[in-house]
Amino acid sequence: MLPQAAFSFISFLSFFSPQRQVLVVLYQEWFKISSQKDSQADTVRLYLRQVGLTTPTLLPYVVNLTDGNGNMALHYSVSHSNFPVVKLLLDTGLCETDNVNKAGYTPVMLAALTAAESSDDLEVAQQLLKLGDVNACSRQAGQTALMLAVSHGRVAMVKLLLSCGTDVNAQDREGSTALMCASEHGHTNIVHMLLETGCCDTSLIDKVFCYTAKLNTVYWS
């Protein structure tokens, strides 16, 4: 059930201009309701519905609020694998899916790390991948969502990313590709999956060891 404090806050939004104190309440209530591991989609839906009914101009602001770490509710719900909340947020059509947090990751990159297995979860994950930039690079290492999924052995996410047109030959700051990452981590099934796309450029060389993807994958052929 939606906390009474949230209803109280929303009820007076339409009567007062957004002052600092009001925004502080909004900030606190929104993250409390939407961004916990056990956040309930029904509660989030009620909150957003009430905001939309009373002060619709605030809805995009609420959905894309960021905390001190640069995370939106979408970052948190993806990280928690709370796909019902992820879907609810995406279905608003207001999410800034390519928003980068202070750690340098977008919701799409975080989704690549999740262990989405059920058909419902994978469907929501695919919805996110189609809305976001699957080829965006993390700020620190320059890794794409595909590289992250490959490195962590997330087979289902690798399949989804490939189906969404991710660049299999993208290179991170060290020059590594997804294929190099797969071979370095010993994920033979992913190595074969990448090679079967027929798009991998095995002549690419990394900047650290000057290895090509072909040298890295020869043992897995």
From TrEMBL:
It comes from the Eukaryota. GO terms for biological process: negative regulation of actin filament polymerization. Keywords: ANK repeat. Gene3D superfamilies: Ankyrin repeat-containing domain. PANTHER family: KN MOTIF AND ANKYRIN REPEAT DOMAIN-CONTAINING (PTHR24168), KN MOTIF AND ANKYRIN REPEAT DOMAIN-CONTAINING PROTEIN 4 (PTHR24168:SF24). ANK repeats lie at residues 69-93, 141-173, 174-198. Pfam families: Ank_2. InterPro entries: Ankyrin_rpt, Ankyrin_rpt-contain_sf, KANK1-4. GO terms for cellular component: cytoplasm; cytoskeleton. This is KN motif and ankyrin repeat domains 4.
